[in-house]
C-alpha cells in the first residue's frame, strides 16, 4: 500500500503589525469587509467637509461680526468665552484660586493612580488636598475673599462632584454588595430595598429631591448647603449601581474557596479581605470604570438645581451676549473635547489596572 503525501497547507495569515490588525478586525470576512468599506466611504465624504468647516474656513478671531459673515466655524467664541466656560460664575479676578484648586485635586487623583503611592499615608494626602481645595474655593482664610458655593461652577465644580462622589460611593457600594449576599435576612432586605429604590428612579429625581424636597423635611432654621445635598444625592445614586457591579464579581467566586477558607479557620472578614474581594474587584474593573465614567458625565445634570458645572457654565457663557448665541455648537465641541480627554484617560487607566490585576491568570 503506497502512502500519499499530503501537500503542505499555506501558513495562516499574520496577525502582527497594523496590517495584521486590519486583516483581523476590519477584513476578517466578506460581511466585515463590506461594512468597513461603507464606513470608510462615509468618512471619506464627511471628513473633507468637516475639515473645511472646522479649519479651512474657520474664524479664529474673537469678533462676532466676522463670524457672522464667515462660512466656517467660529472658534473665536471659545477664545472670547473660555474663562467663563471653565470657571462659570466664579469671580473673574479670583479665577486663579479655582485654577489652583482644580490642579491640586487633579494632582492627588493622578498620584492615587500610581501604584508606588498606594500606602496608608495616601489618605492623609487626600485630607490635606481637600482641605486646601475648599479653603481656596471658599476663601475666608489668608486674606482671601469669601466665595459662596452657589458661585462655584465650571470645570472645578465638575471635577469636585465627580471625584468626591466616586470616592465616597465606592465604600458604600462595597458594604451594600456584601449586605446583599449576607445570610441575615434583615440586612439583605434593607440593602436590596436601597438598591432597587435608587435604581428605579432617574438621577434627575434624586437631585430634585435632594435640592428642593429635603429642605422641606428639615426643622425651621436648619439648612444644609445645596452643594452638599447634591453631592450626597450623586454619591448614593452611583453607589447603588456600583454595588450591583461588585455583587456580580462576588457571585463569580467559586463556593469551594469560601469552604476552604472556613476550613482554615478564617473569619468572615478575613475571608472577604484576603480571598474574595481581591478576586471579585479584579474581575469587575471594566464595570467599575464604566460606572465612574458615567458618574463623571452625569454631573452635567446638576444644572437643574442651579449648580452650573462645565455644561451649564458653557450655556451661561453663550447666553450672556446675543451676538455669540448662534455659535453654541463650537462651545459644545470645546467641552466635548474636555469630557473626551477625561473619559479616555479613565478608560486607558482601567485597561492598565485590568492587565496588572490579571497577570496571575495570563499564560
Features:
363 residues; mainly alpha; 68% helix; 0% strand
Strand-helix topology:
Layout: H1 17-25, H2 30-56, H3 64-69, H4 76-87, H5 95-112, H6 122-138, H7 155-180, H8 185-199, H9 203-213, H10 226-251, H11 255-263, H12 268-283, H13 285-298, H14 310-319, H15 328-357
Helix pairs in contact: 4-14, 5-6, 5-7, 7-8, 7-10, 7-13, 8-10, 9-10, 10-12, 10-13, 11-12, 13-15, 14-15
Structure write-up:
- The chain is mostly helical and 363 residues long.
- The protein is 68% helix and 0% strand.
- The longest helix is centred in the C-terminal third of the chain and has 30 residues, at 328-357.
- The protein is flat, with a radius of gyration of 26 Å.
- The protein starts with 16 loop residues before the first helix and ends in a 6-residue tail after the last helix.
- The mean pLDDT is 87.
Produce a short descriptive summary.
This protein has 363 residues and is mainly alpha-helical. It has 15 helices and no strands. α5 runs parallel beside α7 and α11 runs antiparallel to α12.
* Main structural class: mainly alpha
Mean of pLDDT? 87
How far is it from the N-terminal to the C-terminal residue, by CA? 44 Å
Coarse morphology: flat
What's the total number of strands?
A: 0
Helix content: 55-70%
How big is the Rg?
A: 26 Å
Indicate the low-confidence ranges by residue numbers: none
Can you summarize the main beta sheet? Answer: none
Strand content: under 5%
Number of helices: 15
Amino acid at each position: 500500500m503506497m502512502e500519499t503525501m499530503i501537500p503542505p497547507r499555506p501558513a495562516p495569515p499574520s496577525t502582527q503589525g497594523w496590517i495584521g490588525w486590519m486583516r483581523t478586525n476590519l477584513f476578517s470576512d466578506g460581511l466585515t469587509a463590506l461594512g468597513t468599506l461603507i464606513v470608510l466611504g462615509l468618512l471619506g465624504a464627511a471628513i473633507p467637509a468637516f475639515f473645511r468647516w472646522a479649519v479651512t474656513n474657520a474664524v479664529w478671531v474673537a469678533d462676532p461680526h466676522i463670524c457672522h459673515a464667515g462660512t466656517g466655524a467660529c472658534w473665536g467664541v471659545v477664545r472670547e468665552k473660555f474663562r467663563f466656560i471653565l470657571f462659570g460664575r466664579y469671580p473673574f479676578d479670583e479665577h486663579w484660586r479655582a485654577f489652583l484648586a482644580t490642579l491640586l485635586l487633579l494632582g492627588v487623583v493622578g498620584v492615587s493612580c500610581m501604584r508606588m503611592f498606594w500606602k496608608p499615608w495616601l489618605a492623609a494626602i487626600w485630607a490635606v488636598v481637600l482641605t486646601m481645595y475648599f479653603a481656596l474655593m471658599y476663601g475666608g482664610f489668608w486674606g482671601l475673599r469669601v466665595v459662596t458655593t452657589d458661585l462655584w461652577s465650571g470645570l472645578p465644580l465638575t471635577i469636585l462632584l465627580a471625584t468626591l462622589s466616586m470616592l465616597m460611593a465606592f465604600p458604600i457600594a462595597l458594604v451594600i454588595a456584601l449586605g446583599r449576599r449576607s445570610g441575615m435576612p434583615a440586612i439583605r432586605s434593607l440593602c436590596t430595598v436601597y438598591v432597587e429604590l435608587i435604581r428605579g428612579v432617574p438621577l434627575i429625581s434624586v437631585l430634585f429631591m435632594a435640592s428642593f424636597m429635603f429642605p422641606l423635611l428639615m426643622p425651621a432654621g436648619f439648612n444644609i448647603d445645596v452643594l452638599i445635598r447634591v453631592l450626597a444625592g450623586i454619591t448614593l445614586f452611583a453607589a447603588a449601581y456600583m454595588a450591583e457591579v461588585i455583587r456580580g464579581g462576588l457571585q463569580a467566586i467559586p463556593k469551594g474557596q469560601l469552604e476552604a477558607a472556613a476550613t482554615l479557620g478564617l473569619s468572615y472578614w478575613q475571608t472577604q479581605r484576603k480571598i474574595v474581594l481581591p478576586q471579585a474587584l479584579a474581575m469587575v474593573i471594566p464595570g467599575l470604570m464604566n460606572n465612574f465614567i458615567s458618574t463623571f458625565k452625569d454631573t452635567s445634570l446638576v444644572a437643574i438645581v442651579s449648580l452650573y458645572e462645565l455644561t451649564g457654565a458653557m450655556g451661561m457663557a453663550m447666553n450672556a451676549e446675543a451676538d455669540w448665541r448662534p455659535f453654541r455648537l463650537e462651545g459644545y465641541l470645546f467641552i466635548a473635547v474636555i469630557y473626551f480627554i477625561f473619559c479616555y484617560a479613565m478608560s486607558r487607566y482601567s485597561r492598565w489596572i485590568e492587565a496588572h490585576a490579571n497577570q496571575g491568570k495570563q499564560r
